[in-house]
């Protein structure tokens, strides 16, 4: 029987929230296609990750646990994924459309000669759905290859809930060829704030912030909500914040309960990355700014008055 195979992402021994969301997508696809649902965990000392995924109703969890997989390399992950996909008769291979998935999945598709759809937002049993032109149109994409490869815009899906049964874990021992790429170092961004795609609250700033120093007040506001700080490309290009904070079409997609846009005009490329937020609040001094078209609550005001007042009000309620 054919299968839908989901490649799990993990960090510090835990499956990512994006993986749980991708499982929701994969479950629906496997039900529509009447295929099995398999998960794949790749890495070294990652048995704990596979254990934690046992409750999500997969038919099988393949575990490729090897010292050669200690550090992530697109080359080796693509090799392992394509081998496992062939062994388990996968008809569809998916993973989250984050930076890792964007990196190794095109190589999987090239290795096995499979068609690929990237950043998909749905599957109707025949075609993938994918937004184009910053979300202005939704394309239906039919792949005619035997195996279909997709990266999934996982923020659109709820994290999978436990399915009751306990999946089998099947360790696989593959001979992993030496990589042509060499791992040099992993520079972790030191932050106590949540990752943008996983945050429940995101406070973002744009060109209206004027400089890097003014982002400190957004950080304070985000910390009061235990949220993340985001930015527009304009703020990133001006080097006020690092580029991993960029939200939007060419940055990160977010789907928090609460998104606050401060001094952001609402260009379509930015809005593409925030429109799955549950509540959007905008502060902009220009009443015609396009951000007000997508905001649930808008304030035509100077952010340098509103944001400090908001911080002071919240601090007062905490004390
Ligand atoms: P602006 O458009 O300059 O807006 C600043 C806003 O701040 C204005 O509306 C102004 O009224 C307001 N303001 C100023 N002072 C104050 C104040 N004191 N109080 C309140 N409001 C104030 N952009 C992204 O964000 N993410 C992307 O991923 C992205 N990808 C792109 C991909 C491509 C291919 C292209 C062409 C562009 C992309 N962009 C992206 C850029 C995008 O088109 C916009 O240029 C950018 O989002 C604008 O950023 P901004 O809103 O900060 O700046």
From TrEMBL:
Residues annotated to bind FAD: 207, 232-233, 246-250, 263-270, 284
A GO MF label: flavin adenine dinucleotide binding
Keywords, sorted A to Z: Electron transport, FAD, Flavoprotein, Transport
SMART domains linked: ETF
UniProt-listed Gene3D superfamilies: HUPs, TPP-binding domain
UniProt-listed GO biological process terms: fatty acid beta-oxidation using acyl-CoA dehydrogenase
Cofactors named for this entry: FAD
Similarity remark: Belongs to the ETF alpha-subunit/FixB family.
PANTHER family for this protein: ELECTRON TRANSFER FLAVOPROTEIN ALPHA, ELECTRON TRANSFER FLAVOPROTEIN SUBUNIT ALPHA, MITOCHONDRIAL
Cited function: The electron transfer flavoprotein serves as a specific electron acceptor for other dehydrogenases. It transfers the electrons to the main respiratory chain via ETF-ubiquinone oxidoreductase (ETF dehydrogenase).
UniProt-recorded name of the protein: Electron transfer flavoprotein subunit alpha
Lineage: Bacteria, Pseudomonadati, Thermodesulfobacteriota, Desulfobacteria, Desulfobacterales
């Amino acid at each position: 029987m054919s299968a839908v195979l989901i490649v799990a992402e993990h960090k510090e021994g835990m499956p990512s929230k994006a993986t749980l969301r991708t499982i929701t997508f994969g479950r629906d696809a496997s039900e529509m296609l009447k295929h099995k649902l398999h998960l794949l965990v790749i890495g070294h000392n990652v048995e704990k990750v596979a254990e934690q995924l046992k409750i999500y109703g997969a038919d099988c969890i393949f575990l490729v646990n090897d010292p050669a997989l200690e550090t992530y390399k697109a080359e080796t992950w693509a090799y392992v994924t394509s081998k496992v996909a062939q062994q388990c008769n996968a008809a569809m291979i998916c993973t989250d459309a984050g930076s890792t998935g964007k990196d190794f999945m095109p190589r999987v598709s090239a290795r096995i000669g499979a068609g690929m759809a990237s950043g998909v937002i749905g599957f109707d049993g025949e075609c993938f759905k994918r937004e184009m032109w910053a979300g202005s149109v939704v394309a239906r994409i039919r792949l005619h290859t035997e195996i279909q490869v997709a990266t999934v815009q996982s923020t659109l899906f709820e994290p999978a809930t436990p399915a009751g049964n306990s999946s089998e874990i099947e360790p696989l021992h593959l001979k992993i060829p030496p990589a042509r790429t060499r791992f040099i170092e992993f520079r972790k961004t030191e932050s106590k704030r949540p990752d943008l795609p996983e945050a429940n609250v995101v406070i973002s700033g744009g060109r209206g912030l004027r400089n890097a120093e003014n982002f400190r007040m957004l950080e304070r506001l985000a910390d009061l909500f235990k949220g993340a700080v985001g930015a527009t490309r304009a703020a990133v290009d001006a080097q006020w914040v690092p580029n991993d904070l960029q939200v939007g079409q060419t940055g990160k997609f977010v789907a928090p309960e609460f998104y606050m846009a401060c001094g952001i005009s609402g260009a379509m490329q930015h809005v593409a990355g925030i429109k799955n937020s549950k509540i959007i609040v905008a502060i902009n001094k220009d009443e015609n700014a396009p951000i007000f078209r997508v905001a649930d609550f808008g304030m035509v005001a100077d952010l340098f008055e509103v944001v400090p007042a908001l911080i002071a009000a919240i601090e007062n309620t905490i004390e």
